[in-house]
Amino acid sequence: MFLLTPFLVAVVCILMLWIFKNADGGTERRNGEPRAEARPWVDEDLMGSTDVHQEEAGTAPSGAHTEPWTFVVVKDPDVKHKIREIIEEEEEINYLKRMGPRWVTDLKKFRTNWIKEYLDTAPVLILIFKQVHGFAANGKKKIHYYNEISVSIACGILLAALQNAGLVTVTTTPLNCGPRLRVLLNRPTNEKLLMLLPVGYPSEDATVPNLTRKTLDQIMVTV
Ligand SMILES: Cc1cc2nc3c(=O)[nH]c(=O)nc-3n(C[C@H](O)[C@H](O)[C@H](O)COP(=O)(O)O)c2cc1C
C-alpha cells in the first residue's frame, strides 16, 4: 500500500500533465488555425469586366434549352462581408461538428478552415444558382430537366472564360450555406446555390497547391 502511493501520485501527475498539455494544445490549434491566408487577389475594381464571362457561360447547352442558371455578381463590400459571416458561421459548424473526422482529415492537405478572408478581399464574388424548376407563361411550374448538369457545364465554361482572361478563382461549394445566402441575395425559392467563385487578378505572391494530375492513359480509354 505504502509502496503503491508514490506510484499512484506519479501516475496522477503524468495524467494531469498530459491533460493540461492537450487542453493547451487544443487552444493553440483553435487559435492558430484561422490564420490569415496569402491573398491571391489584386484588389482592383474589375468594373463590368466579368459580365462578358457570365454571357459566355450563358451559352452553355442545357437540358431542353431551359437555361436554368442565375449568376449573382456581388461587388458591394457590405454584402460580401455578410456572405462571409454566413459562410464562416456554417463552415465552423461543418469543421467542428457536422461533417465528422473523415471529412476534416480529407481536407487537411488543402490547409483550408472556416476562415474565408477571400470573401472580403476578392474584388468580385459570383454566386451561381441552379433553377430547379422554372415558370411557364401561365405561371405553372416548368420542369428544368438535368438542371444541375446544365448549370455545372455553364460553371465550367465560366471557369475557362475567367482563366482565359487572366483572372483567378477557386471553385467553392459553401456547405449548408445555400438557404441563408439565397435569402440574403433575395433569390426566389426555385433557385438553389450551386457554386461560389471569388474572382480577381492574381497578386504576385499568389500560390496554388502543387498537385500532380492523372496521366492521359489513366483517364482515357480508347475502344
Ligand atoms: C466541385 C468542387 C467543389 C469545391 N469546393 C470547394 C470548397 O467548398 N472550398 C474550397 O476551398 N475549395 C473547394 N474546391 C476546390 C478544390 O479543393 C481545389 O480545386 C483543389 O485544389 C483540388 O485540386 P484540383 O482542382 O486542381 O484538382 C472545390 C472544387 C470543386 C471542383
TrEMBL record:
It catalyses: 3-iodo-L-tyrosine + iodide + NADP(+) = 3,5-diiodo-L-tyrosine + NADPH + H(+); iodide + L-tyrosine + NADP(+) = 3-iodo-L-tyrosine + NADPH; L-tyrosine + chloride + NADP(+) = 3-chloro-L-tyrosine + NADPH; bromide + L-tyrosine + NADP(+) = 3-bromo-L-tyrosine + NADPH. Keywords: Flavoprotein, FMN, Oxidoreductase, Signal. Its cofactor is FMN. InterPro entries: Nitroreductase, Nitroreductase-like, Nitroreductase/BluB. SUPFAM superfamilies: FMN-dependent nitroreductase-like (SSF55469). Its EC number is 1.21.1.1. Residues 55-201 form the Nitroreductase domain. PANTHER family: IODOTYROSINE DEIODINASE 1 (PTHR23026:SF90), NADPH NITROREDUCTASE (PTHR23026). This is Iodotyrosine deiodinase 1. It comes from Odocoileus virginianus. The gene is IYD.
